[in-house]
Amino acid sequence: FNDEGTVSTGFRLITFGASFYGMYNYTANMEIPYGRFQFQLSGAQLGGASILPIMAVIGWDNVEKINRKVWWMYEMIAIPMSLKFADKLYYKWHLSNGQASLVSASTNLGAINTMLLLNLIYEDGWEDETLNKFYVPLTYLGAIGSGYLTKNYVSNKSYTEDDAVFIEISSIVGLTNFIFLGNLLEIEDAKINQLLLLTSINGFTYLAD
């Protein structure tokens, strides 16, 4: 019988139950269409991912010297607060269901685009301790910036949830075509492959719109 393990397990169960009950109370009287749900989820994901640029700036070697409980506490605060902040933006920006879905999806696309562009500039920067302190925050800012730019782009346009799903699926089709085309052409140059991936995903997304 391990007292420490029992206490740890009990604490996790209590935390899970409290989180479930808290979210139930928070959303009990809300009308949550799929677009709003996606927007909240995207906010939570960005909140959770915000720890990565902080770690990168501190330095990955230094991160290991800091008590893990500090990072867990940060995540426990950042994720729900970011979700709530995203929900406030949903109302502040007066987004429709389709618009909210597109803005949410654009954050992932923004992160991918930023990573690929950084790779095209200098691929080994991720391994360089100094450049990594810029690469990781830039990727995170790319995700946020893409969401904001998409919000401005869709603000005066009408998008249904079906429109948003069609555009999101089209970006996946672009990725699939890149994989098939890469296998057919057997391109070995990494930069050409990355440029082709950028063109394929963004091109299909643009055509779908």
Largest sheet: none
Helix content bin: over 70%
Question: What Rg do the Cα atoms give?
Answer: 20 Å
What class, by secondary structure content?
mainly alpha
Question: Roughly what fraction of the amino acids lie in strands?
Answer: under 5%
Number of strands: 0
> Helix count, per DSSP?
9
What's the structural blueprint in terms of helices and strands?
Layout: H1 3-27, H2 34-49, H3 51-58, H4 60-63, H5 68-92, H6 97-122, H7 129-154, H8 161-185, H9 190-208
Helix pairs in contact: 2-5, 2-6, 3-7, 6-7, 6-8, 6-9, 8-9
Structural account:
This protein is 83% helix and 0% strand. It contains nine helices and no strands. Helix 2 runs antiparallel to helix 5 (68-92), helix 6 (97-122) packs antiparallel against helix 7 (129-154) and helix 8 (161-185) packs antiparallel against helix 9 (190-208). The longest helix has 26 residues, at 97-122. The N and C termini lie far apart (60 Å).
